[in-house]
Amino acid sequence: MTVLVTGAAGFIGYHVAEALLGRGEAVIGFDIVNDYYDVKLKEARLARLARHEGFRLERRDLATPGALAGVLAANPAIDRMVHLAAQAGVRYSLTHPEAYIQTNLIGHFNVIEACRRRGGIKHLVYASSSSVYGGNTHLPFSVDDKVDRPVSLYAATKAADELMTYCYSHLYRLPATGLRFFTVYGPWGRPDMSAYIFTKAILEGRPIPVFNRGDMKRDFTYIDDIVAGVLACLDRPPADDGAAAPHRRYNLGNHRAEPLMRFIELIERATNHKATLQLEDMQPGDVKETYADIAAARRDLGFEPKTTIDEGVPRFVDWFRGYHGA
Predict the structure, then answer these.
(1) Res 326 pLDDT > 80
(2) 3-state secondary structure of 80
(3) Residues known to be catalytic
(4) Is the bond leading into 140 cis (omega within 30 degrees of zero)?
(5) Average pLDDT of the chain to the nearest whole number
(6) What residues pair up with 14 in beta bridges, in sequence order?
(7) What domains, with CATH codes, occur in the chain?
């Protein structure tokens, strides 16, 4: 059978597709390949996927009515979906809100509606975000916490995606699982994320912006651990007992709230360059600390992150140097 992966040209989507192909699955990628960040990086990821005989790309826009439904109708072998396409970025949502409505709300609706109409989807795994916890102060963040205080439009759209999917799961018995990712980093990572921004600036001798004057913590999660969690989830669809909706949510994080300054120190060590810090106030839409409670994912998925930032940061820097010739 075949897995459809939306956002296959993206950071997590590329790695998930690669892992699925590596274990012998056929994969259809679905991605518009927009210019939110460097298209060359996205194309380089796709070129690596194209080396696999079992991969095919549908270069289409999820927000276009009928685009995904047409692909599902033409490919009856698709029985599972990993929906990772999204307009990412908290700060970008402050200046380009319409992009989040189009991709994260309309695009996500098109996914669940296409699944309903086609039928036969054994499991829809979709990306949520740690951003949904918003103004919560109880740490670590639990999937049982309320998520009704978003502090960015990005967070609000992700929380809405969870609600819409739950509704479709309840009404139409669509087996679905939402995964709340916590600050994912690693090789082939996004240029708008801290690891990439900091490494690039440090190697180029430019100051790096450090928000809240460095008084922040993040649950940095290495990409290999995220992929292991996504695949474990995909292989374990929620059971349908005819009563409760076959819908679940999990945190996928490293279960460690790491000080931002320590993350920067590890990049300095890996690059053998000293950072020039540009201390700034907290940005609108940002939060001071993230920390994942992964008890449910451990119990149900056997999820156990293995990569500390001491191991993961040097691996990312090595990839960055090789990719950029730095």
Answers:
(1) no
(2) strand
(3) 154
(4) yes
(5) 96
(6) none
(7) 2-324 (3.40.50.720)
